Amino acid sequence: MTRKGSAAQDEAGPQEEVVKAAFGAKNRTRLIDAYFSSVAGDDITSAKAWAHVYRLLLWEDQTIGLAHCYESDKSQPGKNWYARSLAFHDWVSEALGATPASLAEEIDWLFKRATSDLAAEVMRNSRKVAAMAAKQLQPYADRGFPKPGQDPELVSIMRDVLGEHLTDEPSEELWQLLVQRIRQYLTLENKRKNLVGEGFEDVLAAVVRRTCTDPELKAETRSLLHEVPGFNRAKKGEKLNKVDLSVTHPRSGRRVLVTAKWSVRADREKQFPADFGDYVNAESDGRPFEYVFVTNEFDPARLMRACEKLAVNAPMFTHVVHINTEAIRATYGATPEPTMRRVLDHIEKKRLISLEGWLGALGR
Fold this sequence. Notes:
The protein is of the alpha/beta class. Helices cover 53% and strands 12% of the residues. The protein has 14 helices and 10 strands. The protein has a 6-stranded mixed β-sheet, with helices on both faces. It has a two-stranded antiparallel ribbon with strand order 1-2. Strands 7-8 form a two-stranded antiparallel ribbon. A hairpin with a 4-residue loop joins β4 and β5. α11 packs across α13. The N and C termini lie far apart (54 Å).
């Protein structure tokens, strides 16, 4: 029995560390595997890949109550992108088999599970902190010291809002628990950007591995460039380049370097040509490689620039990939602005393709 107990403790140790790093790579991998293990095999296809990406990563913008497709400050009621956000929310609700009111229950799977893990750890730690504080506060028991985590101002705000709806005055302990839960909620929401960054890369890699059935196809996230076949190591003193996602096929020699960005900021746009230049300079086999941009960006100017960016009079990106080009059509609406029409033209000409289309091309 002693040996079994030790084994259980050995298993619990690493698992506890994973939970503590709820937004880290190990826990993301665990959660993504758990998600796909609950999905029927015939539902894991290139045609349905976009839905898995959205279920795992798309979230509700709490300031407008709609699925996020554009910057929150530009999507408030009265602005053009609020109407477009309504159109996107309507489209994605129907496409995922949900109602507009129930969509939030169908998406944001990865963030919800990661925060659930972290929340449990936070609450465990808070109980430990409370116990330690109680012990050290004991000499001052009659002095009325505040306890860790107390927030009288927040409690006052909640009491004012609830007002007459409070039939009984909650205990001090209950108020403190509520304050902790609110703080925890706000803190965890601020961590979303950590998950949407590398988490997007991890989800794309998982989708590639599960939908492209060729066992020789290899998808790796955040590899150093020189770890990809046919690329030299950076010179001494130079910054080591990492590739968001690399897809390689040893037999055919195919090499796909993917920059994966859920959305695009100006500084990221400037980085694309710099990265491409580094890749070209590091290439050592004298063979073409594919440079692919995968995104869920909806801003038409950013998408247009990605599609039209040139390098030596040829498109810099081999493919520009959007999670779902039909979502773009629905969001832009029946009377798109000129820049939006150019993006729609790129879709018609297959310059901007869907995730489904790209996965299909990878499988060939």
